Amino acid sequence: MPTAAVSTVDMTLAGIKILIVEDEPEIAEIVDAFFRRDNADCLIVGDGESAVDTARWWRPDIVILDLRLPGRDGMSVLAELRAGAVQPGVIILSALGEHIDKLAAFRLGCDDYVVKPFNPLEIVARAKVLAGRQRRQAAHAVRSFGNIRIDIDAFCAFAGSQPLDLTPTEFKLLHLFVERGGRLITRGQIVEIALGEEAFDRSVDPHISRLRQKIERQPGSGVCLTSIRGQGYRLDLA
Fold first, then answer.
1. Among 4-13, 47-56, 196-205, where is mean pLDDT lowest?
2. Mind listing the domains of the chain with CATH numbers?
3. CA nearest neighbour of 219 among 152, 175, 169, 159
4. What are the φ/ψ torsions at residue 29 (nearest 5 degrees)?
5. What is this structure's pTM?
6. How far apart are CA 163 and CA 214, in angstroms?
């Protein structure tokens, strides 16, 4: 007998860390209460600067983000989240319902957008869909961009069918570039994510140079490492 498919919205949020960024206490408390009913682990902050700081140390899985915030607006927070080492799912929850607002948020990298007034059950359902997507991505340990493929569990990488002989640092760098294929990665992010606390800004260059040579030796890689002067690097499709 075939097994019935389980809907994502029927999944629990147990173990999922949700940061609620909302300056209206009543709305924040309602959202918090509905998420806690599904056993999510929640924190509430009421301004943009606190949102960025909390995301850095708490590392949430999902951020519920208002756009109209005191001090620092939600678009700025979203841009900061997408530029940092932590890459949580982001659901915008805002009274700004114009198409231009939605497009701006999606261009900055939000995962979903809900307009106030809202049904709290809808927010929970959308968060479950996002959490399910995150779980599937985490379970799928192979990442690819162009013809570059990396197997995280096996700690190996390929350009087409050819294996790449990478050092552990080069593997971490390539993993970072493939994960964010086509997007700028600053030198500071490279140091923070791939090289570790003991590294410094100028130590990036030799690692990048060696990785670029190993990629370019393989004509079928389908990618190239592009240097963005004064900013960082980007893995582009060749």
1. 4-13
2. 8-139 (3.40.50.2300), 142-237 (1.10.10.10)
3. 159
4. -70, -35
5. 0.62
6. 10
